[in-house]
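The authors assume throughout that readers already know how a fold can be written as discrete tokens. Each protein is reduced to its one-letter sequence and a matching series of backbone shape codes. I therefore recommend that a typical entry be quoted early in the introduction. For illustration, here is how one protein appears when written out as sequence plus structure tokens:
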Amino acid sequence: MASLSTSAGQAGRGRRSERATIAFLAFLGVLLAFGIDVALPAFDEIRESFGLSPNGGAVSLIGTTYFLGMAVGQLIYGPLSDRFGRIPALQAGLALYAVGAVGSALAPTFELMLAARVLWGLGAAAPGGLRTAIARDLYEGDQMARVVTIVMAVFLIGPIFVPLIGEGLLRVGPWQLVFFSGFGLAAVASAATAWFGETLDPSKRRPLGLGQLREAARLVFTTRQTIGHIAAQTFLAAAFFIFLGSAQPIFDQIYGRADSFAAWFGGLGVVIVAFLVVNNRLIRMFGARQMALWAAAALVAVNAVGVVVAVAGGGVPPFLVWLAVAGLGNALMTVLTPLCTSLALEPMGALAGTASALLGFITLAGGAVLAAIVDSLITTTVTPMAVGYLVYGVLGFIALLMAGRQASSPGKAVQL
């Protein structure tokens, strides 16, 4: 059992064993992924329901608006959780999550559905952002990196099954049933949150004021290790969001494999989980920073191969070749996410909530906008995706190199 970094964590140690913590944080991750992945199999039905063009990219806005809602929500829940605690902020977000899911299902127009998706994303921002703050409350340094990596491995089991759940719901009811399921998941999460309990030591709660928020933001943006790893994660998130937004149209319109999308998507999830499990062991041997550099270098190499494959195939390489290269790139990008997160939050200490909020906002908003640029170019070939992967991968690697790492120990965190 790793040592805990706050008295709140020590007080709840009996209930919050490392396994219980990993399970809870992974479930919070499933919540945010569920809002994306469960909708993917329903894209065709949604197009038909709202009369969208089958060759247009409008349906990808279902994901983009969700991400933008999550990005804005990060700025709300982080500071609130530093002031009032993690649990009240989580419960408020889960209530919005439920309302957004129901609103998405009942929306009479596509525009209103997108507005509800923003609300759904605002709710998802609470579990999405605060799970890292909770991890920072309880752990630090390479131990936090290992725990967050395991959390990601466990919650990524969700995307293996969630699209299949969406497929199953479509077989027994209309696409609206897929969105209604988000309401039930939020209710379960609310009960689990109440059981898990607060992790922020009351003595570390911070006043909620403009001056305090401005000073916290200044510390985040002037701490090279933090802002450097946030920048790196933003570019990596942009590349991964390209896949999330365009994978289904690529399967359907370019390769004519819409019927097998959920199965292949789940298979890629298995590969990613395997990479995360191996990475967790390697962190123990080499440390989070070294593993991040190696993974980023490997990602650039894989993405370069992806561009060559796409160009050599006239923009439409053999399906399995494209899927293998994209899947390997996605696995490496996912491995880098917990590494960048833990390294970014390592110096933040009592500012974990606000720092997590800024990290989430920048990576989600920036990633979504950068991904949308590339998604709009994907029509009849996968070349734009391959080039986007390479460009964002290179930029992420450069940011990672510039981030460095504090010479001080992780325990000597920034205080306000």
User: Anything to note?
Assistant: The two ends are 29 Å apart (CA to CA). The chain has a mean pLDDT of 83.
